[in-house]
Structures are given as C-alpha cells and as structure tokens.
Amino acid sequence: MPIRIDDELPAKQSLEMENIFVMSNKRADTQDIRPLKIIILNLMPTKLETETQLLRLLSNSPLQLDVDFLQVASHEAKNVSKSHMDKFYYTFNEVKDNRYDGMIITGAPVEQMEFEEVDYWDELCTIMEWSKTNVYSVWHICWGAQAALYYHYGIKKYPMEQKLFGVFGHKCLDDTHPLMRGLDDIYYVPHSRHTEVRMNDIATIKDLQIISYSPEAGVHIISDMQCRMFFVTGHSEYDRDTLAKEYFRDKAKGLDIEIPYNYYPNDDERLVPRMTWKGTANLLFNNWLNYFVYQKTPYDLNTL
Asked: One digit per residue, pLDDT tens: the chain, 304 residues?
C-alpha cells in the first residue's frame, strides 16, 4: 500500500523513479479506509534527503499512511529554501490540536552541545511532552533519541574519545520482542555520532528496556515498557552514500575524520560502499508500524 504525501513534494518524484507506490491526495480521498496518521519532526540539515529516506521506508508496508512534516519555529533551516519549509512543513502551533498514530523525531547535528544550549530546546521539550498525549508511538533517532532519553528520564549523553563512524554489527537482547522479528542474529546499522548513552544509566530506569546492542557501537535500541516510545541510536534509514558524503565533506574541510568502519570494500574509498543494512531498515520500520502503531493505536484517535 502507498504513502500519501503532497503531490509536489520533491521526494515524490524520487520515490516514483524507484517504483515505490506514492498516492496522490486526490486518489486517497476516494478510498474508504482510515490511513495511519504519521508526523515527522525533521531536525536534520539535509531535509530533502531525510524526507526521501524516511518516506522510502514508511512506504514499504501494506498500510496506507498520511504523512505530515513538522519543523521547529524557533530555528531557521539553512540548507533548504524557506519556500520548501513553508509549503511542506507545519509548525507546532498548527498541529498541536491534532492526534497522530505515530511520530518520528530525527537526529540533528548538535550532539556536542549541551541540550539546553540548543536554540530550539524549549520548543522540542514542548513537542516531546505533547507527544505523550497526542501520539500513540514515537520513534526517536540518534540525537533525537538522546534528547528524548534526557527529557523523559534524565539520562545523560557522554562524549566519545573518537567519533563513532561506520557500519557496525548488532545483536538482539530480547529474541521475543516483536520489533526484532525477522532480524538476523547479527544485523548491521550505520552510526555517525560523537556522543553515547550508556547501558548502566539506562539499566537504572525500570520503565526502559534495552532491546539491542553492539560491542563496538554500544546501545542501539531502547524501548519503554509500554512500547509507546523507541529510542534508536543508529541510522538505519541512511542511503548507501550518506556516510560517504559526510566523509568526503569533512575530509575536504581538513577535519580529522577516519574512513567509515566496515563500509568500503577493502577500506578503499574509491570503491562503491557496501549497503549491508537495507533489510534491517525495512524490517525495523515495518515491525514498528505493524506491531506498535497499526495493531495498538485506537481507531478513534480522540481516545488516545
């Protein structure tokens, strides 16, 4: 089944070129079903790429989805036109009375700042508090996960001696958890971050469960016990070349950047990177949508 997005969103053309079924608003309005309502708070600077990455994964499902994009009004996006943001993104004031089946809060390139130093921190806290009553299940990614763990549970992030950068193997810590269904014993996910949350801190919170872990990358997925909130430290939504773009960008700036771990064949940056996480990404997003959004959310969102 398709996702329903604005006909003029740039991601629509990209997805259609990949033979991904994207439904126009006009066609969707003729169908007598209730689609799942999903809202994406996109904090990434590469807004258009992130839109396409997330919509690609959300579309690989038998469910029809209505997707809205949300921005923070207290921060001006610098890498995308104002006209794009005005046309395709809502502000919190415009959606605060709405209710959603699911929400995604992305990462952001601010992890080396203290949370309270981020210019939109207060607004983000308001949105995260709102999500507890107006959204059934929330999927937090990378810095978005760290921010939510700090806001909801007081869990701190710690600077790492060296940037965690590459594709790392992970293993499931709860084989019975529906989110992990279909995943291999060792599955791979990209990471790109300077900070981490620590297992010992999370273990002190009775309402949290660590679902998966990497010996090299640390904690990967955390869930609250009601499975209403998921905190994911990696970037399974990344494209094949996302790490490469970051690597060559930082290298061109003269920054101290190591070649991404377990990414290029023979660590040769001239070769096409291996994409070893595509199946994992699709399973994680499908399992979240199926088991924790579609099967759990009430038909009438006003009863949330």
From this structure: 455 667 777 776 776 676 555 555 554 454 446 789 999 999 999 999 999 999 999 988 888 899 999 999 998 888 888 999 999 999 999 999 999 999 999 999 999 999 999 999 999 999 999 999 999 999 999 999 999 999 999 999 999 999 999 999 999 999 899 999 999 999 999 999 999 999 999 999 999 999 999 999 999 999 999 999 999 999 999 999 999 999 999 999 998 899 999 999 999 999 999 999 999 999 999 999 999 999 888 878 887 7
Q: Does residue 125 carry a catalytic annotation?
A: no
* Residue of 142, 152, 170, 246 marked active site: 142
Q: Is 161 a catalytic residue?
A: no
Query: Residue 84 catalytic?
Result: no
pTM, full prediction = 0.89
Helix, strand or coil, per DSSP, at residue 15: helix
